[in-house]
Write a structure and sequence with these properties.
Order of helices and strands: HHHHHHHHHH
Shape: elongated
Number of domains: 2
Largest sheet: none
Distance between the termini: 17 Å
CATH topology of the largest domain: Muramoyl-pentapeptide Carboxypeptidase, domain 1
CATH architecture of the largest domain: Orthogonal Bundle
CATH superfamily of the largest domain: PGBD-like superfamily/PGBD
Structural class: mainly alpha
Number of strands: 0
């Protein structure tokens, strides 16, 4: 998918089911996350990603940038859907590291090497549902001030804790779990909310 969050919109889990999932073994939650987050290497219309290069814009560019941002080849602020010089440089480095022709063009062969890497964690906001929300809530309970239920529902309590986290991290206070919030340092060396939630490969 061009954005993992699209998957969340298609998940029709009742609240009781979410409570059941959240109470299960952590490995069960991780298996569910892997299923949801790796689902789809095609666009929303079922087509594979387009060949993209310097100067291109759009969802496929943003999808690529998310992958690179998760692997530290780009920063969160570089995920803008514009294939500029920084993205081209990251592509060439990726191609060279994978034994490909380092031409900066992302065609079928380069996409096939990007395939094993997931995109960035989904954008979560008020109303979001699913196991990713439950995993976030689990982490927010461990020293980040969350006192609500681990129910997989992104409600006011979850939003308020996210806002406080953003304030402490010096980020724009939106209450939305976006790329910058997922990847902001979370105390322990190298830890982020993304890694603590088990969303890193």
């Amino acid at each position: 998918m061009t954005q993992v969050a699209v998957n969340l919109k298609t998940i029709d889990l009742r609240k009781a089911e979410l409570h059941s999932i959240a109470g299960d073994d952590i490995k069960t939650l991780q298996a569910l996350l892997n299923l949801f987050l790796t689902a789809g290497d095609v666009g929303e219309d079922g087509t594979p990603p387009a060949t993209i290069k310097l100067g291109d814009t759009g969802d496929d560019v943003k999808r690529l940038q998310r992958v690179f941002a998760r692997n530290k080849a780009l920063g969160p602020d570089d995920v803008d859907g514009v294939f500029g010089p920084r993205t081209e440089e990251a592509v060439k480095d990726f191609q060279q590291a994978n034994g490909l022709v380092a031409d900066g063009v992302v065609g079928p062969i380069t996409w096939s090497h990007v395939h094993p890497y997931r995109e960035a964690s989904p954008t979560l906001q008020a109303g979001s549902l699913g196991p990713v929300v439950a995993m976030l809530q689990r982490v927010l309970k461990t020293g980040f001030g969350y006192t609500g239920a681990i129910d997989g529902i992104f409600g006011p309590t979850t939003e308020n804790v996210v806002r406080q986290y953003q304030t402490n991290a010096g980020l724009p206070v939106t209450g939305v779990m976006d790329e910058r919030t997922w990847m902001a340092p979370a105390g322990a060396a190298g830890a982020t909310l993304e890694s603590l939630s088990g969303l890193i490969l």
